[in-house]
Inverse folding.
């Protein structure tokens, strides 16, 4: 039952003038659409009563298409023109698709995104997805009796900017207005959170047809907060089908799946999927393939054999799960519930692994195939303005990569760490490097690596008009702020004079296809190397600063030193300079820098005394007090 | 025949009026529309009409026009929180059937 709010006099809306809104789960294997009707979210069936629309499009000669089950049925007979799992190609270039050789499609290298050459001409993944979305839109409009005002489409949390943009483009092509893209696990949390008013910290384990996502969310007082996300954008139920197919090939002396004709590959994969589904409720499943050259080959797959085949894949999901838990800085005990999403979580193999890891039974009350679409529908309903005012819930997202600025030596000082919840504001103080420096160049970077060269440059701007002062005496406060829409603004402000410079950046803008995940992989793989490089660069910056300072001091106060003292200092300076020029290892550089510090210690003390004497000269104790 | 507010509803009306910066009270009315025949409306009141009846409940003024009162008599307005959602709920003894969304009813 809907709850009412007070309206201004004469402004009461007539009931049931709801704007029609829907949530769409545009899945790798299946897609579905759900909507909120009379305050209840439900998935909408097609005219045959089927909720799931297989994400398969078959292009026919002459421009027609077949979709869903119909296309799936003909997949085996016309593999080259029947596009399945198109979500995997969204926003990807041909070079990104390692599995391209194993697929029966004729790929073309389109501008930025891969193309698929079909009997009806070249089609982009965006166009193929648009066909699926169009079918869902038509289904919803027929059911609800009017045009859709807007939709929420879900995407894997791991999707980068290019993949998200491609999804939006597909929606536009299908005549849909996207209210927002929603991370799939967040949608699942909405479905559970709203229906049960649950509070706590949840792990959302989403093993779909083609993607795996793990998200750690916290639900408190109506606020969803994404604590951490992780996953693998190329791991899902399809991989289990391939594992079974490969096993079958090995059983019958066929080298690889790719060695079979495209039709045979399709038949075998379809049989493998069937066997996988059978194994969720039975102990063994038969597999057979009619060979092109005649004859039928058969095998029987047992549940334990399948468990063995699937173990490496499940292990991958569990290691991503562990990583996300680490990112969220949580232990198993902190998790109050585990939600399973995606048809593949029907596999006892997956359920057992999740149960074992978290030490509890996962939540499965809402159909794992529908839970994401239902959450999206609830969100769409609110965004379309159908929810009562004040009932909009806040959705906090995270920034996928750390943000920081360049500091001396080509290093990146991280200001907002990866996986920070949005909106966020963080500030840090920086200072000048040279005496009398009046301008500072700020370089905003994104990435996990320690050096500028390995991170992605987002923007550069300059702060001018810094009052001239000694190096290190100026305080420049650099503030990073990311609003709820992911818009980053960076402000640099000199604290004394108040001079300020400001820039706005869209952090994910223009990030290439796999860059985010590649950058993360890269950072994990090279963290040790980075640490060493960072240490070296820091030592170099220290050494250079020491050289500069000593040079300035010598120029001003050489008179305070005896000739052999000056010689000793020059020698120490030369040693340090030499180390810098030859990029000497960090330990040696540090030793020489410390040595330079030691010879100049006494000099520094004398300078200090001299300047104090100068300052005090001619004054009495009275004037000082 | 009167119309009343629960203490929670009265508190929320008071808060809403304060936030709005003025108003006499809360108007409850019934319109003929919606899927079950009649629909509730809930509005702030700036001026009274001739056929308005005014009730005091938990310190707040509730205004109902006489035509609506025929169908609202005995109604208690509650303010509730359901999950993440909060709002007013009509407990109307005259209503025989509510539609699924709760915005309209039949007598």
């Amino acid at each position: 039952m809907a709850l009412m709010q007070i309206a201004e006099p004469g402004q009461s809306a007539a009931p049931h003038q709801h704007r029609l809104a829907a949530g769409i789960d545009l899945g790798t294997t299946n897609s579905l659409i759900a909507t909120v009707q009379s305050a209840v979210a439900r998935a909408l069936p097609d005219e045959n009563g089927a909720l799931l629309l297989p994400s398969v499009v078959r292009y026919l000669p002459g421009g027609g298409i077949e979709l869903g089950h119909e296309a799936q049925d003909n997949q085996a007979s016309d593999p080259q023109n029947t596009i399945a799992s198109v979500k995997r190609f969204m926003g990807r270039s041909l070079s990104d698709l390692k599995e391209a050789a194993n697929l029966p499609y004729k790929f073309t290298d389109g501008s930025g995104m891969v193309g698929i050459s079909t009997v009806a001409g070249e089609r982009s993944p965006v166009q193929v997805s648009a066909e699926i979305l169009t079918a869902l839109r038509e289904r919803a409009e027929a059911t609800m009796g009017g045009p859709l005002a807007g939709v929420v489409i879900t995407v894997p949390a791991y999707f980068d900017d290019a993949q998200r943009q491609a999804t939006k483009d597909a929606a536009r092509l299908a005549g849909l207005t996207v209210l927002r893209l929603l991370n799939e696990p967040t949608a699942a949390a909405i479905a559970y959170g709203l229906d049960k008013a649950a509070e706590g910290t949840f792990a959302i384990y989403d093993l779909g047809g083609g993607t795996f996502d793990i998200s750690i969310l916290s639900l408190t007082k109506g606020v969803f907060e994404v604590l951490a996300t992780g996953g693998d954008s190329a791991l899902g139920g399809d991989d289990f089908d391939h594992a079974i197919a490969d096993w079958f090939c090995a059983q019958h002396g066929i080298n690889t799946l790719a060695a079979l004709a495209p039709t045979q590959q399709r038949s075998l994969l379809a049989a493998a999927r069937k066997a996988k589904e059978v194994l969720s409720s039975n102990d063994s499943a038969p597999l057979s393939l009619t060979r092109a050259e005649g004859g039928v080959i058969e095998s029987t797959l047992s549940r334990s054999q399948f468990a063995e085949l699937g173990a490496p894949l499940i292990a991958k999901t569990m290691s991503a799960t562990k990583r996300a838990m680490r990112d969220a800085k949580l232990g198993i005990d902190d998790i109050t519930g585990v939600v399973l999403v995606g048809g593949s979580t029907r596999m006892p193999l997956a359920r057992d692994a999740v149960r074992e890891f978290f030490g509890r039974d996962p939540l499965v009350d809402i159909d794992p195939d529908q839970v994401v679409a239902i959450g999206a529908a609830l969100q769409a309903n609110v965004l379309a303005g159908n929810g009562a005012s004040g009932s909009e819930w806040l959705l906090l997202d995270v920034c996928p990569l750390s943000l920081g600025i360049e500091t001396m030596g080509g290093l990146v000082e991280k200001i907002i760490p990866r996986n920070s919840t949005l909106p966020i504001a963080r500030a840090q103080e920086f200072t000048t490097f040279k005496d009398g420096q009046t301008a500072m160049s700020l370089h905003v970077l994104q990435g996990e690596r320690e050096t500028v060269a390995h991170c992605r440059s987002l923007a550069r701007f300059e702060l001018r008009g810094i009052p001239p002062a000694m190096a290190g005496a100026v305080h420049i406060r650099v503030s990073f702020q990311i609003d709820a829409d992911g818009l980053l603004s960076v402000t640099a402000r000199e604290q004394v004079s108040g001079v300020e410079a400001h820039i706005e950046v869209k952090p994910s803008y223009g990030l290439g296809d796999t860059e985010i995940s590649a950058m993360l992989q890269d950072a994990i793989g090279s963290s040790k190397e980075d640490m060493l490089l960072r240490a070296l660069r820091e030592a170099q910056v220290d050494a250079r600063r020491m050289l500069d300072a000593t040079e300035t001091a010598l120029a001003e106060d050489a008179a305070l030193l005896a000739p052999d003292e000056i010689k000793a200092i020059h020698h120490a300076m030369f040693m340090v300079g030499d180390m810098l020029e030859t990029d000497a290892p960090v330990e040696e550089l540090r030793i020489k820098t410390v040595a330079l510090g030691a010879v100049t210690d006494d000099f520094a003390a004398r300078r200090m005394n001299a300047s104090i004497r100068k300052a005090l000269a001619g004054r009495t104790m009275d004037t000082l007090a | 025949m009167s119309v009343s507010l629960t203490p929670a509803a009265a508190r929320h009306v008071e808060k809403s009026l304060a936030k709005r910066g003025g108003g006499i009270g809360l108007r409850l009315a019934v319109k003929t529309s919606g899927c079950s025949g009649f629909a509730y409306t809930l509005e702030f009141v700036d001026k009274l009409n001739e056929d308005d009846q005014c009730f005091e409940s938990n310190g707040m003024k509730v205004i109902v026009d006489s035509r609506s009162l025929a169908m609202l008599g005995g109604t208690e307005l509650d303010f509730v929180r359901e999950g993440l959602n909060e709002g007013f709920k009509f407990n109307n003894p005259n209503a025989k059937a509510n539609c699924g969304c709760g915005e309209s009813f039949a007598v």
Observations:
- Chain B has a mean pLDDT of 80.
- The first strand of chain B starts at residue 4 and ends at 5.
- Chain B touches chain A through 34 residues (CB under 8 Å).
- The beta strands of chain B are 4-5, 25-31, 38-45, 52-57, 60-65, 76-82, 85-91, 97-98, 104-106.
